[in-house]
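Protocol step 4 of 6.
Sequence for VWFA domain-containing protein (Blautia hansenii DSM 20583) entered exactly as in the expression construct, tag removed. Do not edit the line below.
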Amino acid sequence: MKENMMENRLQNLLWTVSEDYNCDVKINPADLQKSPEIAFYNMVLQGAFQKYFDADFFETYIKKKIQYGAEPSVLTLISKLCIDSAVSLKICAERKGIENIRRKAFRETLKKDAFRFSHTDWDYLEYCYLEFQLYQKTINPKLHPLLLKIAALSHASSVKDVCKCIDEVYHTSYEKGFAEYFKGISRDTSGLKSAAEESDETEEQDNLISDEDTVNIFSGHVDAQDNGKQDKSNVRLLALDKQSSEHLEKYIELNYGKSILPPNEKSRLQKQMCTGIHEDCKLHITKGVLHNQAVSNAKTDYVKRIKEENLHVYKKNFLLTRQNILSLSNLLKRALLTRTERELCTSEYGTICPEKLWNLGRTDNSMLFKRELLQDNSDFAVEVLIDASGSQQRRQSLVALQGFIISRALSLAQIPHRVTGFCTFGSYTILNEYRDYLDNSDADENIFEFYGSANNRDGLAIRAVADSLDKQPQENKILIVLSDGNPNDIIAANSRQKTEKQPYYLDFAVKDTATEIRRLRNRKISVLGVFAGEEEDLQSEKKIFGKDFAYIHDISNFANIVGHYLKKQITD
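Step 5 output, structure tokens:
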């Protein structure tokens, strides 16, 4: 009911600002989840742009930019900044309350997307723009000319002025690059014409672009981690050259933590794991920025804040969480107990059986004794792998809670286990080890440092943690994967191959992940998928894990569902 009321308010706001009751724009649920102010102001932007500028011309411009090779995610963000500058002064002068909504939306964006702003050049540009608009602060003097160029659009009277500015900012901030760590990003843009000029060409050329190429620049930030469902023709790979890769490693260490592996071991692992479609990829195994970072920085402060938020959710749901932990641990203990029950068997030694003494001198039967056998209850090792990509940001506290329940229950049942989160940034798949096999139960709370960022190359992550699981001395091994069933990594590594690599997303990525799961099962490693995503991605989850996956509708039933599977693996 509340959602419908909010959507009606947003729709009415759009009509009021645009003064056009035929105006119909889809509402982005992500905006509402972030903040009502962000959703309100984005709707104001859409209505104001429809009112003051030729929206049809602009849509054609965006289509052509993408057709000629522009990166949709970068174009989306830069376009939104330019349109804000072009319409804000006009609409704020016309409707006095808009200025207050705009400032609140900018503050909320700075707060909610603090980590994203450190990811790429264009994210950083948005951060500088928001600071410049709110506080007239120039964070980076090198960007001051760009910010002034965008700000000058406040006096724009034609949509072509907006398009021209977007062209200039795009070529500067993306194709040339200005951030310290990403100066080496290269991209072939030969033949890329000015899309603003191309928009004046014939209608016949316009028809070459399908409706699927339409990009809604008001739909919120589109970073490298999207929903994996965009049209294949729109997916483009960023090629990182050698210089970029070297800088990228420094960036990874700064933002995710230093590697816990010595260089020779890291090199061996990469050579062994990064083969086939994962060739030219790299692995980075870390304990996180809070555990091996020499100095405190913005990222450590961010992770501390995220941990506090996750712990707040845990404390708010303490009784429910405790109930799940005790329920799951007791179930596991009972299952292990069945493996340690005394089993009596006849033997050539042990306790003599008087009723069998008649065999002496009469038969060759020497099995005159009984002996108790105890089955070993410590022959299990469990690996918990958690998808820590950007698609998990909206539910990261819930995912952290699920990981904690599993880990603490395994600790209480004294089952050796490791908990690892994974994401992919550039050519690196990062494995954040929250808890190792030999750690005590205090390490379980490290899982509350979990947060979502970047992309996810599930197949490579599963392959890498399985290597660690294989090395454990226990006979029986179980892998539990908490994911949204949506592997997606469209940023390519520096490739030695002449042919362009296929983007890692959609069916291609799902099939690769499913293949890795089958290989583990063929090696007698049991695998359970715990679905932590949107219902529309359930089919992908089924393709990956088959019948062995759990869909958690209600956190209160989490222990029963996961426990049922683990009990089956232990007792069989």
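Step 6, annotate. The chain has 21 helices and twelve strands.
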